[in-house]
Write a structure and sequence with these properties.
The chain has two domains: 75 residues, no CATH class; 119 residues, 3-Layer(aba) Sandwich (Rossmann fold). The protein is 33% helix and 22% strand. The chain is built from six helices and nine strands.
């Protein structure tokens, strides 16, 4: 929060010295927030965009159900504590929209996790990265800035909310004069270990 406010101060100073250049702050998916999005910036200071956490986790829920491949298994979701409430609600909304909702278990730490019989998909969102060391063949949705080509074989989908992934949409929003808004992350489907039918669903 303090760091974001420092960025805001730097943005204002930069804007004062370079009024012809637009300045954008990307807040990421930290649900605790900096207070900037709610109070806004002075007219023309800078643009503020945040990761669309609700959309990302709703889409992740639908993707996890597709990766389940009709096994009617259990989905494990690891969440960082700052986004837990909003992310959990969005994920469950997606799961509960299905004809036959799947069981979902949420964790905020890998230490709370133990082997789950019938596990069909794992979502890693800021917590639980240690799970990848197991390499047990369960498809993983990994929310990360890591290059999709560098992730372990169990990773089926990479959800990228890095500044580089959001840059194009941010420029479009600046051009449209949108002072504040949310940007959906990029979903990269890694086809190497995914069934053709599942690919079609995704």
């Amino acid at each position: 929060m303090l760091q974001t406010k420092r960025f805001a101060q730097a943005a204002r100073l930069y804007r004062e010295s370079n009024p012809q250049i637009h300045v954008v702050l990307l807040e990421g998916r930290n649900d605790e927030g900096s207070g900037l999005s709610s109070t806004g910036s002075s007219a023309g200071d800078f643009f503020i965009y945040k990761t669309d956490t609700e959309s990302d986790f709703f889409r992740a829920g639908l993707a996890a159900a597709a990766l389940d491949m009709d096994k009617n298994g259990i989905i494990a979701v690891f969440l960082e504590s700052g986004i837990e409430k909003q992310a959990k609600e969005a994920f469950l909304r997606a799961i509960n929209s299905l004809e036959k909702p799947l069981e979902t278990r949420f964790f905020t730490s890998f230490s709370d996790f133990s082997e789950i019989p019938g596990l069909s998909c794992v979502v890693l969102a800021g917590a639980g990265a240690e799970y990848l060391e197991q390499e047990n063949g369960v498809p993983v949705i990994f929310m990360t800035w890591i290059d999709p080509f560098l992730v372990p074989d169990d990773v089926a989908i990479v959800v990228d909310d890095s500044p580089w992934a959001q840059a194009v949409e941010a420029v479009r929003m600046v051009t449209a004069g949108i002072g504040q808004g949310q940007i959906r992350s990029k979903f990269y489907i890694l086809k190497k270990n995914i069934d053709k039918e599942v690919l079609h669903k995704l």
